[in-house]
Amino acid sequence: MRGPLTSFRLLSTKSQPRNSLPRRLLKRLISPSADIPQISGWKQWLAHLKDDSRVQLKHLQDEIIKNVEVDGSVENTLMMGEINQFHFQNSLAEIKTPTLLLHGYAASSMAFHRNFQGLSKCISDLYAIDLPANGLSLPQQLEIRCTEPQPLKIEISNNTFKLPYTINSLHHKSAIQNFEDYYLDALEQWRLDNKLGPINVIAHSFGGYISFKYAVKYPQAVKKLCLVSPLGVERNIFSVNNNWRSNTEYKLDFENPASKFYLRKGPAIPAAIFELQTKVLRRLGPLGARLCWNYITAAYARVPDLKYKEYIFEMFYGKNGLTQTSKDIFTSLFTNRLLARDPLLDSLYHIHCEKLLLVYGDHDWMNRKAGLELVAEAEKLGLEAQYSEVSSSGHNLFLDNPEEFNDLVVSFLNK
């Protein structure tokens, strides 16, 4: 299935910056870490020709959790036969509000395995789940409740852009809501199934985007919200809220992520790679397996657990490790410049949680200036919000520096 919002045309003549995301990805693909065991691309390719990844993912998950020490008890269940859930209980902990850890795109609850110990000391009921169609959670039916809207085509040339025709923004927003609801309604059902009142949510990257929209749709469900290097904050030229006039030339803004004229610097991800994603690696056969392992060992160089790297490899390269449903939703909510079609800044006035925290790594590739803008606008709306950074860390800051991350989160939840 092709996501209904994936068709758009980008015409750009700008050169690629030195630290652009595509350049970093390429470096990780071709430069394996010297201190990590290398794999046989042929052996991995043969091993993944037929077998579904779920069996291996479950085995690796159990191996990772076996080495995690927590205060209190831990229970892993398939909630209502659908949602893979970890529940850490510690009656002696000071923070009594149930708290959910929510992973990013192409990830799972195991992303927080280095945080379980530290956070379980302070939170009485700590949960970590795999979103539907992610990790070991089962795919739920994706219901398409509206027709496909007219594609959003934006022509970019030098420092300007224009649309050849106007679009029906309400139709586009309805389609976006359709895809968001796949996760939002599942999260609310999960909360009700666990018989939970208002919860705290700590969510990373794409999970940050989803949790923000969850707080918008279900304001009674979220008490405190911590967005960890969230995706989709910036206003941008692709936002369906802009109402551009057809055949009217507008000037681009490459600096201000709070501007509706904003465009992230650097080239877009090629459309074929953006839509195919991990299928590209599988189609490359043994070479794809080797490139995938090189990327993982570089991207997670600060994570000492080899089993976790094997787990991520299984998600990226294994058959159905990343489901088609999750890909379709992601490519329908974001452009191939990783800009949201319905940005968080456009929805901020709907947020009514008690407190909001934006936290990034000090070497994060995500747009930290956008986080600062969101906090500033939230404060103007009367929302208690704060911004912080974790040292010696990148986009996966909770993995890179778990102790400092845990301390920051606990302090936020305790106040």
From TrEMBL:
It comes from the Eukaryota. Pfam families: Abhydrolase_1. GO terms for cellular component: mitochondrial inner membrane. GO terms for molecular function: lysophosphatidic acid acyltransferase activity; phospholipase A2 activity. InterPro entries: AB_hydrolase_1 (IPR000073), AB_hydrolase_fold (IPR029058). SUPFAM superfamilies: alpha/beta-Hydrolases (SSF53474). Residues 100-402 form the AB hydrolase-1 domain. One of its GO terms (biological process) is phosphatidic acid biosynthetic process. This is LAQU0S25e00496g1_1.
